Amino acid sequence: MSEGTDAQGLIVRVLEGLSNLLLSIPGSPILIRYVKSSYQNDPVRSGIELFLCLFAIRYLLAPSYSTQKNKVVLSEEVLLILWASGWTGAYAGVGD
After folding, report:
1. Cα distances (Å, whole numbers) of residue 70 to 66, 67, 78, 92
2. What tens digit of pLDDT does each residue of 28-38 get?
3. How many separate domains does the chain show?
4. What is the pTM of this model?
5. Which domain does 42 fall in, by range?
6. Per-residue pLDDT tens for 82-96?
7. Residue 52 covered by a domain
């Protein structure tokens, strides 16, 4: 019986620590009040908004990619092959 009490005490201490940590974040009481008043009987809404929030965080933390055209650097061997074949740099079918 003592093992169950110890485990419960540990869980209570961990939850109290998490609660104190959450309350130390600026603006968290407002967020907690909003969640308590908005989601009393609507777990579907809670799930959808949680998903959207996580998606937004993932989107904001994703690496950005350049929209400018990438320049391809050819090796000297490839340039020699192109030069030997008579390639002038024009696109195929353009300027013929």
Report:
1. 8, 9, 18, 20
2. 888 778 777 77
3. 1
4. 0.37
5. 2-61
6. 878 877 666 554 444
7. yes
